[in-house]
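Me: I'm a chemist; would you kindly supply a protein sequence with its structure tokens?

Assistant:
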Amino acid sequence: MSKAFTLPKYSLGVGDRFAHQAKAQLAACIKAAEAGIEVVPVWNKSNREHMIIGTEPSQTRQAANTAVKELGWKQPYFVDADHITLKTVDRFLEPCDFFTLDVAEEIGKAAKTEDVDAFVARHPELIGEVRIPRIAEPFHTNVAFVKGVANKFLAAVQDAGMIYRKLVENKGEGQFVPEISMDETDSPQTPVELLIILAAIADEKIPIQTIAPKFTGRFNKGVDYVGDVAQFAKEFEEDLAAINFAVKRYGLPENLKLSVHSGSDKFSIYKAIHEAVVKFDAGVHVKTAGTTWLEELIGLAESGGSGLEIAKEVYREAFAHADELCKPYATVIDIDYARLPKPQEVEGWTSEQFTSALRHDQSNPAYNPSFRQLLHVGFKVAAKMGKRYLDALKANDEIVARNVTTNLYERHIRPIFLGQ
């Protein structure tokens, strides 16, 4: 694999829904480099977001290239075709060099009996006592267990194989970074289940460089982790151990690492992530996606005048169309509608009142996670504003960019990668 398409140890998925914050996002990675650590940006935007906003993946690539050129970034960077399927991959082929293979629809669909039987026959090492180095207790499995896991995940892995082979046909082997997303399932995978999945991926000959398993707890959009932090830490370390073992056992790429999806704003687990990657000398990919859009809104509100009016209008429209906006994200938001302020109340807010409710500062008693989550899914409202919204971003570029950079560096990069 050529060096250009090897994902470095630490990477940050950055969403830029309106393609105006690439420089501000890259500035956070530059600050990390100045602090002595390489964190490379991966600009990600899903097909659904492109459809809602009316953009093309080529615009994400163009914004990334421009930022890299203007800021003189010499390290690797990537553009992620986020959550693509066979149906949606075509428009991403040319501009992207990182592909998150989304197999959520296939998880749980029964694989062919003969394929499951063949998998079990190929992998006797997965049956009986399974010892994974750096996990204290061995796992005890039997044929029925391995068949059950294969039956749940094998069709999904085979689907990923079809997408991967299409990418190879179009881009060439080694000319992109493949990731597989396994996080959209009903329960977290145990280390031995993850090992079975990785064995299946190796059988499909997909040289994945990152995998996104499902972790315990809630990873709601734009707000903190909800769950048992100690349990998360244990799972995260055990997943790292399973990956280490699978790399050696099945010949997967040596830089294979965990990917944390919906990773933005999960402040309470960042210490656990940092300590685990240091302990295992492992890499990690953390996807932050929509947090930048909220920093745009904060910047507009902070600027006052017409910027604040736009922020209030976005909330008013989001409140009026809450059911429609929330529906696609129902599994990853928890809004307490009783805690949403009435739009008439918000109309009278100052810049400080609006930003205090929205900015993810848990020490501020005015911070409102329900308000924040509704606005997180409310980017469709800004998309409908079109030029008016984009012009406001340009007019308030300095204040918006400052918020975007500060959020990514201070609240995400420092605790995750620097342990500060």
